[in-house]
Amino acid sequence: MFKNAMDTNTVIFRGKSINLIGNHLKIGNHAPEFRVTDKDLNIVSSSIYKDKNIIISVFPSVDTSVCSFQNIKFNKEAANLNNTAIIAISVDLPFAQQRFCAAESIEKLQIYSDYNLLDFGRKYGFVMEPLRLLARGVVVIDRKGEIRHIEYVQNISDEPDYERALSVAREIMLI
Q1: Which of 11, 62, 67, 147 is the catalytic position?
Q2: Active site residue 101
Q3: Triad 26, 132, 124: Cα angle to 5°
Q4: How far apart are CA 101 and CA 61, in angstroms?
Q5: N or C end of the chain: which has fewer CB within 10 A?
């Protein structure tokens, strides 16, 4: 189900309604800078993608089939988008993320962990409050730092609307 952040601040996880905490952003908002942990346990800032379009694939854990497919799909699409960084963020430890990327031959998207600071999750409103996991979703940011698409997937077991996110990414690639 496609929804904007204004519709609700909850998601369904294993049949239960879970509150999302943090800033609930919408299309047209300026994308806040955030810090996450890379594969080498370094804290990096989203500012490294300045002047690029960005697709952010947000997911709870690499250890689930939907999350795995979501990242495989975006990795496959990454090769087709010029001047676009595709990054993936979860609270999985960087070690688990590296194992997943190696096992699935994920080489084109950059994967980061929000386990340490929850900086991305709080600034973008993806933290499932009692679980300390990120909800599933997609954010597309243009090179000027404006959010052009944001999806908080209503039911965590559902996939995001890949085609909508990729369509927006292709549109802004031409601007």
Answers
A1: 67
A2: no
A3: 15
A4: 13
A5: C
